[in-house]
Specification:
- Helix 3 packs across helix 9 and helix 14 packs across helix 15.
- The chain contains 18 helices and 27 strands.
- A hairpin with a 2-residue loop joins strand 26 and strand 27.
- It folds into three domains: about 210 residues, no CATH class; about 160 residues, no CATH class; about 150 residues.
- The longest helix has 19 residues.
- The strands form five sheets. Strands 1, 2, 3, 6, 8, 9, 10, 11 and 12 form a nine-stranded mixed β-sheet that branches. A seven-stranded mixed β-sheet has the order 14-17-20-22-24-26-27. Strands 15, 16, 18, 19, 21, 23 and 25 form a seven-stranded parallel β-sheet that branches.
- By secondary structure, the protein is of the alpha/beta class.
């Protein structure tokens, strides 16, 4: 798989250099302060992510109340259109909408250190043009460049809606001659694979008609046997795939949806997501089928459709009206294309375990390890001790082996690293004999006492990271405050979130409230001063 992943990764970067990324990018956040933060950020990294000449038009909008990503897509489109029109920009074949919501509870306390901006987590990739370390949202958007080109070459006109913390590299190389997407209203992105018990339980499934390549239905997460039975009811000429989340919507669909659902978009009570119910409603041929889906869900012990209809009582009738209006406008039945991504390469930095696994992969020679280095722009060449050292300075007597160091300094000759990852580090003595990861830390003495530890923006004189531990420093106006977690903490709800755990002075909830009240620019500048000062 590495060869395919590598070509697709390099292709995305090449499209930036050819000024062939999206001509229009819309970033959608949840507050006025985030709107300003992300608008500035996207403009700064545009030449590294979208088009090297910086010509991409960036519109930053925010939701004034919860809408969910379905109504939120329509609201953001309506918010962005006047600015696009005023700038006299012609809509490109395919535009990009990047959703940057998410406080990242399950990545506590790292996201609180970033002002509750999960997609703002910095990666090891240093951008050549802006000179900044790209954030997860930047890599997520960079990974969509090849999707945009493929859809445009296939005749699609519309917008990709991309979740802001998902860098997804296809495991296939698409043949643009094989598909005509000029007459579809949407495109679903899937991984067509065999149903397993784990995947059936954890993922949603898109069913495709083998003859037409169009979506037949979507099924929510359920037991493997139940899922297989439901798919069998659709006949033999179908293919199934795991839903990859992000999607593409035609301009005609967006226009029609705003005509039909404009009042709902402005209603502070109604909210809903694309997955799974908007897609299920669009696929249901009549209300009887919709009611049957609701009954089936209740048999599975789930209440999602009931809760949806409590806050949005006319949801299915409105989606049926949308479908009818769209079919009347296009003169054909609703058509939802399906694009198979094959065995995808994901760089998931949004959970503690997957963050650590992604960083650990940088030190390995597996397909995934090499692809991870390609994604972050890290070379594969090693020195005589098996290290990959990029723009870094280390004591020649330090005992460092099989590690990856990027833009880091380690001064003390007694430092020890084995299969460690250090990015943006300023260290005197660093002890990482069991592996581990130190991201953008500045410490006189930083010790990892066991495997699987991660320190992020840890600032101080003496810091210890426990086995499986997580450590960061909150740079509050009245001084730094250390916060920790551990990979063994799997539940970030209830008391684990609302009350202090693991000896922390604050709960993650209280920490989030404090950090969200700080100005984003001031927070970044305070961290930079502290980092440079050590």
């Amino acid at each position: 798989m590495y060869d395919v992943w590598s070509r697709n990764i390099r292709d995305n970067v090449g499209l930036v250099q050819q000024n062939a990324g999206p001509a229009v990018a819309i970033v959608v956040s949840g507050s006025e302060s985030d709107q300003a933060y992300w608008g500035e950020h996207f403009c700064r990294t545009s030449g590294d992510v979208f088009r090297q000449d910086g010509s991409t038009y960036v519109a930053s909008v925010y939701e004034r109340f919860l809408r969910g990503n379905f109504l939120g897509t329509l609201n953001a489109w309506a918010e962005a259109l006047p600015g696009i029109a005023a700038s006299e920009i012609q809509l490109p074949d395919v535009a990009l909408m990047s959703m940057v919501f998410g406080k990242g509870k399950r990545l506590s306390p790292f996201t609180q250190a970033l002002g509750n901006r999960k997609p703002a987590f910095p990666t090891p990739m240093k951008a050549p043009q802006s000179g900044v370390f790209l954030r997860t949202v930047d890599l997520a958007n960079l990974s969509a460049n090849s999707w945009i080109r493929h859809l445009a070459k296939s005749g699609f006109r519309g917008m990709i809606v991309k979740w802001g913390d998902e860098a997804v590299i296809p495991g296939v190389e698409w043949d643009t001659e094989a598909r005509d997407l000029s007459k579809v209203d949407a495109v679903r992105f899937v991984w067509q694979t065999e149903i397993t018990e784990d995947l059936a339980r954890e993922k949603e499934w898109v069913v495709t008609d083998s003859a037409t390549g169009l979506m037949r239905f979507q099924f929510s997460r359920q037991a493997q046997d139940t899922l297989r039975s439901r798919i069998a009811d659709l006949g033999n000429d179908v293919q199934v795939g795991v839903n990859l989340g992000s999607l593409a919507i035609s301009y005609t669909f967006l226009e029609t949806a705003l005509e039909v659902l404009g009042d709902d978009v402005l209603d502070p009570i109604k909210w809903t997501n694309w997955d799974p119910y908007a897609w299920i409603a669009l696929c249901c041929q009549d209300e009887g089928q919709w009611r049957a889906e609701a009954a089936h869900e209740e048999q599975l012990g789930r209440t999602g459709m009931r809760e949806l209809e409590a806050r949005y009582p006319d949801f299915y009738p409105k989606l049926a009206r949308l479908r009818n209006a769209l079919e009347s406008k296009t003169g054909r039945p609703l058509a939802i294309g399906v694009l198979d991504f094959g065995e995808t390469f994901w760089a998931d930095l949004g959970l503690h375990q997957t963050l650590r696994e992604t960083m650990d992969a940088l030190t390995t020679e597996s397909d995934r390890g090499r692809a991870t280095r390609e994604l972050f722009g890290i070379p594969h060449d090693r020195d005589k001790n098996g290290n990959i050292i990029v723009r870094s300075s280390i004591s020649p007597s330090a005992d460092i082996r099989d590690s990856v160091l990027v833009d880091s300094v380690i001064l003390d000759q007694d430092s020890v690293l084995r299969r460690g990852v250090v990015v943006g580090g300023r260290h005197d003595w660093l002890s990482m004999p069991y592996g581990g990861c130190a991201l953008f830390c500045a410490a006189d003495r930083l010790e990892f006492k066991g495997p699987h530890g991660v320190a992020f923006r840890s600032i101080g004189s003496e810091i210890a990271v426990a086995e499986g531990g997580r450590h960061t420093s909150f740079l509050l106006p009245d001084g730094p405050e250390d916060m920790v977690s551990n990979e063994s903490v799997l539940d970030y709800s209830g008391d684990n979130y609302a009350k202090p755990i693991l000896g922390n002075p604050l709960s993650f909830e209280d920490a989030g409230a404090i950090m969200s009240g700080l100005d984003a620019r001031d927070l970044e500048e305070r961290w930079l001063r502290a980092w440079q000062g050590r």
